Amino acid sequence: MPTTKKNITTTKAKTTTKVVKNETPNMAVPVSKETKTAKFLNKNVKVSPRKLRLITPVIKKLTPQEALDRLKFTNTKAARIFYKAIQSIIADSKNNHHLNPETLRFDSIRVDEGMKLKRMDKSHGSRFARGLIQKRHSRIEIILKGELN
User: 37 and 143 in contact (C-beta within 8 Å)?
Assistant: First the structure.
C-alpha cells in the first residue's frame, strides 16, 4: 500500500494597494492576500521515474484543472498515476486548507527515484548485467500554491 503524506505551509504574499471610492485618491488601503501551499507526497509508485518525468514538463505549465483535462486523455500508466495524485491534492487543498480552487497553481513537481527491487536471472545476461533485473519505483512530490478563500 503506498504511503501518502500531506503538509501545509503558510506564507505572506505580495501586498497590493486598493483605492477605496468615496475617499481621496491619495488614500490607499493595503490589502494583503495570504497564500498557502499544499504538499502531496507518494513515496512508493510502481513506475520508473523516467516514464513519469516524460509527463512533468507538460503538466507544470498548466493549471491543475487543465492538467487533469489533459491527463484524462493520455493513455499511459504514468498519466493515470498523476491524474489521481492531482485530484487528491486539489481536494485536499480545497477541503482541508481552505484554498480557492481557481487560484491554485503548481509550485513544483518532483519525481525522484524510489526503492528498487532486484533479483537474479541468468537468462538476462551472465557477463555484463550479471543477470540482474531491477524493478524501479518512484517518489512523487507535488506542491500547489493558492490563495485563501
Answer: yes
pLDDT of 54-85, one tens digit each? 999 999 999 999 999 999 999 999 999 999 99
Task: Name 59's Cβ contacts closer than 8 Å, sequence gap at least 6.
Answer: 67, 70, 71, 82, 86, 106, 109
Tell me which residue of 128, 103, 97, 122 sits closest to 9, measured CA to CA.
97
Distances (CA, A) of 94 to 81, 127, 145: 20, 54, 11
What lies within 8 Å, CB to CB, of 90 at 6+ separation is 64, 65, 68, 101, 104, 144
8 A C-beta contact, residue 110 and residue 68: no
Residue 103 · residue 149 · CB < 8 Å: no
The matching CATH number, chosen from 1.10.3860.10, 3.90.550.10, 3.90.470.10, 3.50.50.60, for 4-11+30-147 is 3.90.470.10
What does the alpha-carbon distance between residue 108 and residue 110 come to, in Å, rounded to a whole number? 6
